[in-house]
Amino acid sequence: MMSILIYDKYLKLTESLAGPFPALSLANAVGKEDALFPEILAVTAGVSKNFNSYSSESLKGGKKNDHGERSGYRSFTDVYPKPLLLNHETFGDILGRIVTSNFVDNTHIMVCARISDWKYIEKVKEGDYLSVSVGYLTDSVVCSICGNDIYKTREICDHTKGQRYGKKLCVWEVGNMWFRELSFVSIPGVPAAGVISLGKDTSKKNESDETTGEEEGNDE
Ligand SMILES: [Zn+2]
């Protein structure tokens, strides 16, 4: 079975793996200290700057795929916690993992990530890692002008995303979404998507590495 993997800007066809897989979790890691848990707005319903249209229904989701992952916001944590990456580099470093995901106000997905590597924690705290973009699989991509489903026909029509045809704007209406990763990017397709708050901070770097010579002693 082929699926379409979309990074808001571009899409590529991927071979789907056979399932089902045992569920993996961060249950052991989450309880441990030394991590930052930033709250991140992953994506909003509406038309992105790259003219992909995400409906509230798609973000809410609930349709199970062959691996038992429910579509929409739950796919960030279903079966295994999805990775936090840089620029959709699936062969690069993993910066962290998504530990919780919620659909809020029927408009946007809020996730909490866990980042344990201090060099990435610093980047987030400094605001260098700020904007994000989603990578996902879908089962339907429909041209808003002619109704051609690129997923089903495997053919791109003559309409161009972002162009107007009469009064109608051409966008790609994305169907069910199974999120594969969340990436920090320099220029987000959804401007509002990014780190909203630094959240819980149990990173030791935060406490111990800022000392200026005098150590605070423990009364033991
Ligand atoms: Zn078309």
Keywords:
220 residues; mainly beta; Serine Protease, Human Cytomegalovirus Protease, Chain A; nine-stranded mixed sheet; four-stranded mixed sheet; 12% helix; globular; binds zinc ion
CATH class of the domain at 2-15 and 34-46 and 56-139 and 176-198: Alpha Beta
- The CATH architecture designation of the domain at 2-15 and 34-46 and 56-139 and 176-198 is Alpha-Beta Barrel
Described by the principal axes of the CA atoms, the overall outline is globular
Q: What topology, given as strand order, has the largest sheet?
A: 2-1-9-14-6-7-8-3-15
Give the H and E element order. Answer: EEHEEEHEEEHEEHEEEEEH
SS-derived structural category: mainly beta
In whole angstroms, the N-to-C terminal distance is 62 Å
Number of strands: 15
Helix content: 10-25%
Helix count from the secondary structure assignment: 5
Mean pLDDT: 85
Structure report:
- This protein has helices at 27-30, 56-60, 118-126, 150-153, 204-208, and strands at residues 2-7, 10-15, 36-44, 46-47, 52-54, 83-86, 96-104, 108-114, 132-138, 141-143, 164-165, 168-169, 172-174, 177-184, 194-201.
- The chain is mostly beta strands.
- The chain has a domain at 2-15 and 34-46 and 56-139 and 176-198: Herpesvirus/Caudovirus protease domain (Serine Protease, Human Cytomegalovirus Protease, Chain A, Alpha-Beta Barrel).
- A 9-stranded mixed β-sheet has the order 2-1-9-14-6-7-8-3-15. It has a 4-stranded mixed β-sheet with strand order 4-5-13-10.
- The N and C termini lie far apart (62 Å).
- The site of zinc ion (ZN) has 6 residues, from loops.
